[in-house]
Amino acid sequence: xxxxxxxxxxSVSYHGNQALRDISFTIQQGKMVGIIGPNGAGKSxxxxxxxxxxxxxxxxxxxxxxxxxxxxxxxAYVPQxxxxxxTFPITVIDTVLLGTYPRLGLFHRPKKQHKDWAYACxxxxxxxxxxxxxxxxxxxxxxxxxxxxxxxxxxxxxxCLDEPFVAIxxxxxxxxxxxxxxLRDQGKTVLxxxxxxxxxxxxFEELVLLNKDLIDIGPVKKILQPDIMMKAxxxxxxxxxxxxxxx
Length: 247
Ligand code: ADP
Ligand code: MG
Description:
This protein is an alpha/beta fold. The chain is built from ten helices and ten strands. Bound molecules: adenosine-5'-diphosphate and magnesium ion. Magnesium ion (MG) binds near residues 43, 44 and 162. Keywords: ATP-binding, Nucleotide-binding, Transport. InterPro entries: AAA+_ATPase, ABC_transporter-like_ATP-bd, ABC_transporter-like_CS, Metal_Ion_Import_ABC, P-loop_NTPase.
């Protein structure tokens, strides 16, 4: 098996507050892996620091055995919904075409073949009828499908998605999940930040459980054991108990 992601001793802080502490783990290629943990656990920070979108205090990350700057084209990233400016004036098809740019190279205009490919990716997510719409005119689920099409257009090897199922409709979620599973079956690696634990078992083979520290990583069934989950969610659970007492 080939290593898709290797994270070694990764620490990240914001203005002196540590968000991730000495995280190390490895993910093999061809897996669909969920990154779970309570709110503020550092899940988004993990993806962003892995991809060098924010600076690290320390640590090394290798993707496909190489430093990130050598494999950027191989990585598709779909940020958390609230980090995108959905009022930005751009059409659906142009959004998907952006996915082809890393391979196109700077200063090269997309040719017909790229447009055809972008359109095919839109078809894959069932959004071809909306190609000339402004991205801001779509529902949450439709917008997320367009971003998945952009990731597909990039023809990446590693897909990193931050809470892709938040605030979207059931149909969009089903379409996106089946596309991600298909990518996994083709040998691609899919990392998904996710917080709906009820779906974790059906969606993922492996879970990374975070709460500032790496609590554990392993097969879904192993991680979803109460004693392991308690280590990450204990503070939330005691809060819930407190509320129950008050009621
Ligand atoms: P998660 O995605 O698991 O909810 P985040 O990675 O967004 O968690 O955040 C981890 C911690 O870092 C939280 O305490 C959050 O408040 C803090 N944090 C995240 N982004 C920033 C930022 N840009 N500036 C300051 N603190 C931040
Ligand atoms: Mg987050």
